[in-house]
Amino acid sequence: MSQSAQSLPRHAIRTSPYADRVRSTRVSATSYEIRIDGEFRFLIEGDEQWPALWQLFAVINGVRSGKCLTLESEHFDVIEQLERGCFWMPAAKVAPAPHSSSLTRHRFPQYLPE
Length: 114
Hints:
Blueprint: E1 22-28, E2 31-36, E3 39-45, E4 54-60, E5 63-72, H1 75-83
Antiparallel strand pairs: 1-2, 2-3, 3-4, 4-5
């Protein structure tokens, strides 16, 4: 089963120049295989407990490497980084992460004196 943009949370859907080259397949409740251009290149592994931490590992000749490349709180954050070209494209070709152009600040609530 491939991970499509429709199955990701709405706030995680972003346009990326490499999104069509990256495909994720859910292997179990806590792991995803990542294929780039049809080649098995990465493995995402997570925890079953809350808060889950998702780790990205490179796959070389079908074998998972021992070094974690990144650690995120959601699997779709790792997939989004791969769709931007992180970890597999030259640094000059990695698409920048989207940033919000506006920032809303909310004051802390004022408590009534007793």
